[in-house]
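It is worth pausing here to work through a concrete case rather than discussing structure prediction in the abstract. The textbook approach is simple: state the sequence, then state the predicted structure, then interpret. We follow exactly that order.
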Amino acid sequence: PPWGTRPPSSPPGRMSSPPGRMSKLSERVAMADVAALEAEIDRLHAYCERHGLNSRGVSDIVGREFALPVDAEHKATVLQVTTAAQPHMRAFHLAWLGFFSTFFSTFAPAPLMPYIKPALGISKREAAVAGMASVGSTIFFRLIMGLVADTIGARRGMAACLLVTTLPILGMMYVQDATGFIVCRGLIGISLASFVACQAWVSVMFSKPIVGLANATAGGWGNLGGGITNLAMPFVFLAVRDSFAPGDDDAAWRLCFWLPALLHFGTGLATLTGRDLPDGNVDELELSGAKQKSRSDVVLKVGFSNLNGWLLCVLYGMSFGVELTVTNEAATYFFEYHGLSVKLAGALASCFGLMNLFARSLGGIASDWLGKRFGMPGRIWSLWISQALEGVFCCLLGLTTSGMALEEIPASNTAGRCVLLLSVFSIFVQMAEGGTYAIVPQVSRSALGVVSGIVGAGGNLGSVVTTAAFFASSDARTDDSFIKMGLAIVASSCLCALLYWPDEGGALLGPRALGRFNPQLVLPPEGYGGADVIDLSGFAKGAPATARSTVLSTVKLSESVSTASEYESSADAENGDGSKESAAAPAATQPSKLCSAELRSVLSSDAVEQALKGLALSPAELRHEDALDALRLESPGLSTDELRRRAMSAGGATDRSALELV
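Step two, the predicted structure:
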């Protein structure tokens, strides 16, 4: 019968069922109703989670409830860009905003080159060298950032990258010649290593089914800085010249660099408010025992020995590298070839970068969609098709004016057609980038940061190569260079055929088609986890926050005692009066050794306070607190103070009957 209704009584004149049989029937009906109700509740939870609600109340290992629904590893299962809640969406927004800031500052000089070149006497070749320096200087630092992300966390790497490179941005205001300009652009370009931190940080926050979308959106919104700077800096220049340097173009372009400098500094400080991993920061998690300590030697060997990572490195060089090259060339192309004003040339060139607002996310969405249906081969085909079409439209852009004399191009009215082709070209560039970094998290979990660094470095190296090969020559026409670069892109996309995963296959090969061959040439040690692997076995999963506030829950006691023992050993050395500290010092004096600046630098103030409280207890008191902790998990409705009050009333007893819990 439906829930809440009674079965009808037996009709008159008919013998009723025996009591025993009726009891069993009622029990089966009740069990069926309970099962149906539980299934309905599960459907309600699934509905809520699809809409971004953590309806199950899942919390991290110290009881902080997540704002978004999460999987078993506490990675978010949805991307909800309208919130900046800790930890998932705060990390997402700080990651793309940090990368946006570095992209904005790196390419801020490009739309101002018509003013900078005559002021500093920069030739076309020197301008090309400065462009290569801005994107090439970060190659080595992207590799370093990958190691940083795997060992101390992407958040710190991002913050350091932003704050340190604020100085050369300010230095751009004082350059006097081409050499100083090239050096400053190279130093500012180091900040593009933030891209690796951006992708590694987002990768550890979101689950596998949506990590492609999350990575692509964060990377795309960060890349948007290139379009925004082309669009905004000419207007910033005009505003600065009219307000602070009337008639002085040289002073005006120099003052413009206050904007990217402030953007770097403010975003760098904001980044420090995020969290390394869903459950906390790296140092705290390692000290608590929830996270295995990362080994730099392992992540380097594993990351550098994966063949898929190197193939993606080349492929990314022909998508992101091409984007960097075009961002450096587009404004000058419209100014010199189509005879447009500096302001209009910058606005039209910004169309290329503005496609990042949605196009890179399209690449991630396509990769996730095909990945769900066809596995890794689907993701590879998504990348292959996007990159091939990228090359086709690059060729079409160049073919629009390649047969014309330079003096005929402004009168040909082809600027509009070139902008349209540039925009479509950009869409496939961004989709290829999004498709690449939808695959990167699947390459090597043990060395995710290093692989991200290798692929990211390939992007910048690709820009250096394409600029040197196609645009650096003083007599090379820009439209002919677009054609040559497009052909190179189409050819390089065929490398997708070589990507292969033993358990899933590749674009043209099935699983185990190559026998025992594994593109991961050096395997990680047995039991070694990645930078995002958290061991939740020592913590109560899914328990409400009120069930985890006793003194032993934030930092495991064994780790605290071990740390305290190290300080105690060092304290056994001679004191100033020549005496030695007794090994039998009272327990109350030992916690003071835990208050050093070294330990406080890796523990939050709450964690230090709770560890100190734990160490100040005697063995009997520790057993008493441990018993209370167990009772709290069984009785989440009672506070710690209430349990302690009942224990005191019962003369210190901690059994359930004495505390009136049964």
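Step three, interpretation. Confidence is low (pLDDT under 50) at residues 1-17, 540-596, 598-604. The first strand starts at residue 500 and ends at 501.
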